Amino acid sequence: MDRAFLIKYGEIGVKGKNRYLFEDALIKQIQFALKKVEGEFAVRKEQGRIFVEAVSEFDYEGTLDSLKKVFGIVGICPMVSCEYGDYDVLEQHAVLYMQEHYQNRPLTFKVNARRAKKNFPLTSMEINAKIGEKLLQTMDHLKVDVHHPDVLLNIELRERIYFYSETIPGAGGMPIGTNGRATLLLSGGIDSPVAGYMIAKRGVELDAVYFHAPPYTSDRAKQKVVDLARLVSEYAGEIHLTVVNFTDIQMAIYEKCPHDELTIIMRRYMMKIAEDLAKKRNSQALITGESLGQVASQTIQSLFVTNEVCTLPVFRPLIGFDKQEIINISEKINTYETSILPFEDCCTIFVAKHPVTKPNLKAIKRSEQKLEGVIESLYQEAVSTAESILVGSEKIVS
Length: 398
Ligand code: ATP
Ligand code: MG
Hints:
15 strands; elongated; 40% helix
């Protein structure tokens, strides 16, 4: 049974002091991810590499699934180890490893030994040659290919002797916590969870804001958003979700503003409130799931008018994506099935039949003046009554 994993991570751009920050954040996220897995694990940094070692019985598949969700990991190598010993011990276990993993399949191979313990009597080159020869003798179906082997048998001599030959692709990106914090406008749709995932992948911690409109939107619609936040948190770590009651603001806009401008004015208030909440939590940017031209509120003119209320940068990682491309990612990260559950979100109820597609900023601002005297207190009320929900498991404090 594989009991340890060598974690490979991208090293480009992580030099000097940044390297430590990167590695420490990565270790913290690995520990966070493994909390949900059955078993006890030790996560160690050793000579520029990270090892995850099971120190009890553990759930192998569950461990792999969790590690595959940790940003910053490029590859995961399941390792088998034996106690440190002389050459005979090494040889015996190398043969065993190959027999267990590659029995009866014609394959080419190459041996790649590394000595962290330099006092082993043979050099790496000598180990490679001797083990290679032994394997050729004992396993008829193996051939050596030093340039393009099917199997690269890695042998590492440390306080134990480790064997590995397989690299499972990791999630890539950068460890959460290495790139600040941003606030995701999270609806119950397909797009915004994907947008959150994509920014989290760059090492950004996520907060989320959801605007609901009871009784026009149900508790189940809200639960769906909490569920989506939880699915994203499997990658992004703990997410602080704020649920804002948007009903009164929406009603006021509905009563006082032209109906073809409802969506755009509503979106301006959402962005404004999201920005206020973000600033209170030291969040440095907003994130939306907008994609250029997807709907009337996502034309260039609409994005310009929506954006105008914000001073923080607004990240729109899906801006150039087709719907199908977004769906593909949502399927990969397992949010799709939840996103398509048929609970109304707050925008669909107040949508006009023919919304403006080229809103004019001056005209919109003129319409918003009709809200003066009413909107201020509604705005304060919405912010002050917002509900906070912590989604995802508790953070590792180390
Ligand atoms: P999504 O699939 O993410 O709901 P969408 O295609 O339905 O997106 P819109 O409804 O125009 O697009 O919303 C654009 C973006 O505005 C969303 O991606 C999301 O970031 C934000 N948003 C929309 N509605 C809400 C809401 N009720 N609460 C929080 N954010 C919202
Ligand atoms: Mg939506």
